[in-house]
Design a protein that fits this description.
Helix content: over 70%
Largest sheet: none
Distance between the termini: 49 Å
Radius of gyration: 16 Å
Number of helices: 3
Shape: elongated
Structural class: mainly alpha
Order of helices and strands: HHH
């Protein structure tokens, strides 16, 4: 029986870590976007927009996986801020 509880706990831990990762990913995308908007070098600006887009896509794809309804709501709100930025 202990192995079943270990597996359940491991799944919970993974979900929490993935949720943390998604928050960081969205914050990173916002940072790339802020840099892209203020930098004068066209190549750096293009690269930062591309990185922001990639981070946004990654977060958007993962939100529905392994998260509780409350976590999904919170992550969707953060993602909406990024989408509107």
């Amino acid at each position: 029986m202990e192995n079943i509880f270990d597996a359940v706990e491991a799944k919970r831990n993974f979900a929490q870590r993935e949720g943390d990762f998604l928050v960081i990913e969205i914050d990173l995308a916002l940072t790339f976007l802020a840099i892209a908007r203020t930098i004068s070098c066209a190549e750096t600006r293009r690269r930062n927009y591309a990185n922001a887009r990639k981070a946004h896509e990654e977060a958007a794809q993962r939100i529905e996986k392994h998260q509780t309804p409350e976590e999904r709501r919170y992550l969707r709100e953060k993602l909406a801020v990024l989408t509107q930025a």
